[in-house]
Design goal:
This protein is mainly β. Helix content is 11%, strand content 55%. It has one domain: Lipocalin (Beta Barrel), CATH 2.40.128.20. The protein has helices spanning 5-18, 33-37; strands at 39-49, 55-65, 71-79, 85-95, 98-103, 110-115, 118-125, 129-137, 143-152, 155-166. A hairpin with a 5-residue loop joins β1 (39-49) and β2 (55-65). The longest helix has 14 residues, at 5-18. The N and C termini lie far apart (42 Å). The model is unreliable at 1-23 (pLDDT under 50).
């Protein structure tokens, strides 16, 4: 995976330095993921995979709330020049500030928690990979900054920084 020991050391140093400042949590607008992702959303950002050039990321979402309160979010994802990918999220509130769901990319349950304007998402992926996302909602409740880290056996191998806008 790493081309040299110095590359591995450099990556770990970057993670330690970059990881010191976590997302800011405000007590203003509470992040309700079901309300935010119901309707149309659009995301633009960048995907950076270890030892590869960064590539643009574009996500179009269409969410609907079923009668039992479950959010179903269908997304179309375009990574660089790759073929359009489709995925689906399903999430439901299971307690105060807690949600649980599924995602077509996940190999296990999707665990979601909110704290003020911060939404945290965690789930496993195939190949001993895990995902940790932190989304911070702006004061108007219409835009969220998504910072996602994909790790393999605890070592970060990819990151996404994306701005998601609620269109409806």
């Amino acid at each position: 995976m790493f081309r040299s020991a110095s590359a591995k050391t450099g990556l770990l140093a970057a993670v330690l330095v970059g990881g010191c400042g976590g997302p800011a949590v405000a007590q203003g607008t509470a992040f309700d993921p079901i309300a935010f992702f119901a309707g149309r959303t659009a995301g633009e950002g960048e995907l950076k995979i270890l030892l590869k050039d960064a590539q643009p990321l574009r996500v179009q979402g269409q969410g609907r709330v079923e009668t039992d309160g479950t959010l179903v979010l269908d997304q179309q994802v375009r990574r660089g020049e790759r073929v359009l990918e489709r995925r689906q999220w399903r999430m439901r509130k299971v307690g105060p500030n807690r949600y649980r769901g599924t995602l077509t990319d996940a190999t296990g349950p999707v665990e979601i928690e909110t704290r003020g304007n911060l939404l945290t998402i965690r789930y496993p992926m195939k190949g001993s990979m895990s995902v940790h996302q932190s989304l911070v909602l702006d004061g108007a409740g219409r835009t969220a900054l998504n910072r996602m880290t994909i790790s393999k056996l605890g070592v970060p191998v990819a990151r996404i920084i994306e701005t998601i806008r609620k269109l409806d």
